Amino acid sequence: MEESTAPQSKKGAKKAEAKAKKEALKAQRAAELAAAAAGANGNLEDDPAKDNYGNSQTTTPGFSQDAEEVEIRSLDESYNGKTVVVRAWLQKSRIQSAKMGFVELRKGGNWTIQGVVMASEQEPVVSRRMVKWVAGINPESYVVVEAKVTKPLEPVKSCRVSGLELHITKCFVLAPAPTMLGLTLGAASQPIVNFSDEGARLADADTEKAAEPTAEAAVPAASMLTHLDNIAMHKRAPVQQAIADIRVEVKKLFRSYLEARRFKEFEPPCLIGAASEGGANVFRLAYFGQEAFLAQSPQFYKQFEIAGGRERVFSIGPVFRAENSNTPRHMTEFTGLDLEMEIKHSYTEVLDTLEGVLLSIFRGLQERCAEEIDTVRAVYPSEPLLLPEPGKEVRLTFAEAQKLLREEGPAEFANVRDDEDMSTPQEKALGEVVRAKYKTDFYVIDKFPETARPFYAKIDDAGTTVGDGVRVTNAFDFFIRGQEVLSGGQRIHDPVELEERIRAKGVDPKSAGIKEYLTTFQQVGVPPHGGGGIGLDRVVAWFLALPSVHLAAYYPRTPKRLLP
Ligand code: ATP
């Protein structure tokens, strides 16, 4: 992605935060003034409109019989002239004169419509007091209104439903918001410029990079910390609603692509009895006098399903990593989209399936979520993800990728080796070289050296070696915009070969978890198989070129953050 934005210093981030607070205070004062003006209503008994407004304890205060309950998103020309009931958040209010006020109502993500409240002595009566009261409602209160749908003289540019407005004749607050919001919708809708979990402290070089504002904004932005401390407002921001809707769609597309190809869903356990895939990165917890662990991946369980005759399986679920990685790419809990399948002739069947599912997700999102993508881009500008033309997918071997980096990448990578894993900066640099050369942001790197893969990775049958005689594996990673989103490959299904590789990697085949894993392959004949694991959060984040994966998660978990 082009990074066309000016960097912001730590001091700048702090200043923006202070400005946001000042802005909120100003809004509070304005709301208090409006409330005081409206609150001078004292005894309402003499107000002819007294039954048409107020705070309501019931969800259905009295409405006209002919008024239809309608969602803002459903309002179209056919409603012109009709009386409707709308439930929504009041996001803005403004008094125009003693007789007239305006509000903005929002529901369904970012569907907004203007409401007009105008004093009228004729039925339905709207008093001046009612006008003041409605215009004084605190932003983000949940209201229900009865209104006549009308065409405005001019389109209301500030609202998504611009060709219609609501002439409010009844308005009840079902759930009032406080006069002062910890985070206004305006601030929550600005790009987040600081993802640190510790106030203005920036955790590492990656976080520094993320701390760049996208545009000069009228409303100051808030930090991720402020967003998470005001979780409801964070979520109410249309950009977060759009990201959440895109995330839902990714899961649907993953599931539907695989189900159409005879894959069956299953649920691997999160609680496991052994830190089978490497002890260091695993969360430990007390378990009835013993120790339990949180699963770092469903890997072994996917393979048990294959051993158990399920042929083609997938799972969607939480994965836990006890890594103290404070970067925009890492979380301690994320959602894995995993699959495993029998192989008939070649591990490229697995590669084809994984490439197919990801391309179908990306193309599906571009087709089904165009509006949501635009909403996100308005806040976090990015170029559309460049996809390969059908039949022109880019698959490089690890050695080819390193050669490309040596020859066409930045000078600092002129000596990268074919038998050593890539660093994150190398991956990003390669992403740019591949984009320029092959016109795609999505590509595969295959045949990783055995030194860079776990013991269960199948060694290449042809005996290919790289560097100082290091064998390569039938294992691959997938990248978008130079960032890894998937790891996969063929697994060893022969128990003798598996035991030999377990030992070669310095793991004890009799250790807890490994023993049960190996035994499964000894107990029955397990067909050749392979699969892969996709990080859902990273797919969403890098598809949209968001500055941090934390924006794609509902409740990001990091080494320093477990709440909310
Ligand atoms: P990395 O090297 O970036 O830490 P990894 O090689 O440990 O990732 P895998 O164990 O291969 O990742 O996990 C499969 C996929 O899960 C990754 O391609 C990525 O999309 C996602 N993933 C892995 N670790 C994390 C994490 N800490 N936070 C979010 N997503 C992750």
TrEMBL record:
Example GO molecular function: aspartate-tRNA ligase activity
Q: Where is the composition biased (Polar residues)?
A: 53-63
The catalytic activity of this protein is classed by the Enzyme Commission as 6.1.1.12
Enzyme class name = ligase
Q: Which reaction does it catalyse?
A: tRNA(Asp) + L-aspartate + ATP = L-aspartyl-tRNA(Asp) + AMP + diphosphate
Residue ranges annotated for the Aminoacyl-transfer RNA synthetases class-II family profile domain, each copy included: 246-564
Protein name in UniProt:
Probable aspartate--tRNA ligase, cytoplasmic
Species for this entry:
Coniochaeta pulveracea
Q: What is the lineage of its organism?
A: Eukaryota, Fungi, Dikarya, Ascomycota, Pezizomycotina
